[in-house]
Specification:
elongated, 2 domains, 27% helix, Rieske Iron-sulfur Protein, 27% strand
Length: 162
Amino acid sequence: MSGWKQRGIRGVCKCKYLKYFNDMNLEEKINRNDFLKQLGFTGASLLALYTLDSCQNESNITPSGTFSLDLSAASNANLAKDGGYVINNNVVIARVGVNYIAATLICSHEGREQITFKNGEWYCTAHGARFDTTGKGLNSEGKKGLFVYNTSLSGNTLTITA
């Protein structure tokens, strides 16, 4: 009994574990030990790869294309007021005075689709990244800038071009 206590093994089932351990030959013990070491390393490696891949920032994708909005449509009613904005085709379109501006919905900080227009600037609701109306970053989260589109107005048709 004192040998068990010296090795730190306690409990009533110690005979079962000792019998199982003694029934294995030396080769089995080594292979199981190697297996457990490999399993631990492989598990840690997979976790590291998964974690690195999941944090990938895909905000460096440059938007392209052209689309138009009918400003008289009910879905674009927010653009009738100064500071109002709508989201269409992953683009945030806002009205500033009599002008219209547009920027990507995807934040450059972590690639989240959470850009809004707030207090006269582009704002990411995920981490507080801020950008001026030209896309220039206003704080550390916004330091990479924001892609801004060209806009042109003809009658009630607003055209957004990358």
